[in-house]
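Re: that backbone. Tokens:
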């Protein structure tokens, strides 16, 4: 049996905080290093936990506020990935290497990189404990034929291999029974796979199945309607409330539980399986962030942004873009002893890749209401939006968002809607 692993979310910000506390290693735990040994200071005005999208973006913005020498980022990984590209990497439309840059190159110059893992938060004392150990990632990913997952750097290229090797039978795409990063990525790779099978003459032998733990295809009616049309016209089968619980890789069988009838399972033979693993935040996180200000509800000098938070919106780079502009204002106000009035509206966006040259650009807020930037019907599949997703967004990410200059498209939206939206 192949166990379905758990992945982690990241990033929270502690301004006016921390220090690295020397601690006594527990028996059997890896060696812990103190501040002195890693040449980091033991106090930073702003400490950013996690060098993902939210962490790097906020460290750039905080550097402008308090100066590079007063900011540190705790991040164990050597490489930073632009993960939205993995949808296209899994479908063979982009190379994995184009999504990667050294962490050292994305940390703003002068900001201290504490290359370690956050082990413990101690917000009562405005301090954290770090552990100098690389998180153990499954190196080879799952080494089974016909299985891939766009959700890990170790397995995304296996999706492309599984697609190329596919001959016939069920091509199954899963969605787990937990919140996940970019909740539509599991179906984007399905549409791309369907298009690939058509392109390569394999479509007639493929039975394409989306087995999802959810009860709907998309949480916003306007986009759900558009997607259901596509699903119908491309002859895709969707089974709602089906949760993957086991993969028998030796027999190429996937076992699903019917969530409406607990204990009832169904076994599928697969010719290809795209797995979306269950995900959740690391244990150390404080899941109590105000959804408007992004400030912690109990500890006023702790803030959250990005995938690690409990914000009831989806976990995307576009959401982080919207959040960082608000968080910047919140932190400025807190530093001045004032209360900020700017509130995050839950803005998030998902370029729904529906084939190798088409995208539906979904954009919406906390109330699952469309909040579209462009004055056109964005629920239509468009080539222009594909180019925006595949070619313009990476540039905006590396040069705008991560550098602290892009706070989401709200100003463009207002301009294009003559201030009415
Ligand atoms: C966005 O701001 C963003 O972050 C940089 C993305 O992530 C890569 C996106 O995919 C999208 C769509 C946006 C929103 C930007 C515009 C211009 C609609």
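Recovered sequence:
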């Amino acid at each position: 049996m192949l166990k379905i692993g758990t992945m982690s979310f990241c990033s929270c910000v502690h301004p006016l905080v921390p220090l690295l506390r020397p601690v006594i290693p527990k028996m059997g735990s890896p060696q812990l290093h103190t501040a002195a040994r890693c040449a980091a200071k033991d106090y930073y005005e702003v400490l950013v936990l996690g060098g993902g999208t939210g962490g790097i973006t906020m460290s750039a913005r905080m550097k402008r506020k308090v100066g590079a020498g007063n900011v540190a980022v705790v991040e164990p990984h050597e490489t930073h990935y632009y993960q939205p590209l993995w949808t296209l990497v899994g479908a063979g439309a982009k190379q994995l290497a184009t999504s990667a840059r050294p962490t050292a190159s994305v940390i703003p110059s002068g900001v201290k990189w504490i290359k370690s893992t956050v082990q413990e938060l101690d917000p009562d004392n405005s301090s954290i404990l770090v552990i100098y150990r690389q998180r153990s990632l499954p190196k080879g990913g799952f080494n089974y034929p016909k299985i891939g997952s766009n959700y890990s750097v170790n397995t995304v290229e296996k999706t492309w291999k599984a697609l190329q090797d596919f001959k016939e039978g069920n091509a199954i795409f899963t969605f787990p029974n937990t919140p996940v990063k970019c909740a539509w990525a599991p179906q984007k790779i399905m549409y791309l796979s369907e298009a690939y099978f058509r392109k390569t003459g394999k479509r007639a032998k493929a039975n394409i199945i989306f087995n999802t733990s959810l009860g709907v295809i998309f949480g916003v009616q306007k986009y759900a309607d558009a997607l259901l049309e596509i699903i119908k016209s491309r002859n895709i089968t969707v089974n709602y409330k089906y949760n993957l619980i086991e993969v028998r890789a030796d027999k190429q069988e996937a076992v699903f539980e019917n969530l409406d009838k607990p204990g009832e399972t169904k076994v599928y033979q697969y010719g290809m399986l795209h797995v979306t693993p269950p995900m959740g935040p690391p244990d150390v996180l404080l899941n109590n962030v105000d959804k408007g200000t992004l400030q912690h509800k109990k500890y006023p000098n702790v803030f959250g942004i990005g995938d690690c938070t409990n914000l009831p919106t989806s976990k995307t780079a576009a959401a982080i873009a919207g959040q960082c502009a608000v968080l910047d204002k919140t932190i400025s106000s807190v530093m001045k002893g004032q209360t900020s009035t700017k509130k995050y509206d839950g803005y998030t966006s998902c370029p729904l890749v529906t084939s190798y040259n088409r995208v539906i650009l979904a954009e919406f807020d906390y109330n699952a209401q469309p909040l579209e930037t462009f004055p056109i019907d964005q629920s239509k599949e468009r080539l222009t939006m594909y180019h925006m997703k595949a070619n313009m967004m990476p540039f905006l990410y590396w040069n705008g968002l991560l550098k602290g200059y892009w706070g989401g498209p709200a100003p463009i939206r207002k301009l294009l809607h003559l201030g009415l939206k």
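The longest strand covers residues 348-355. The longest helix spans residues 317-335.
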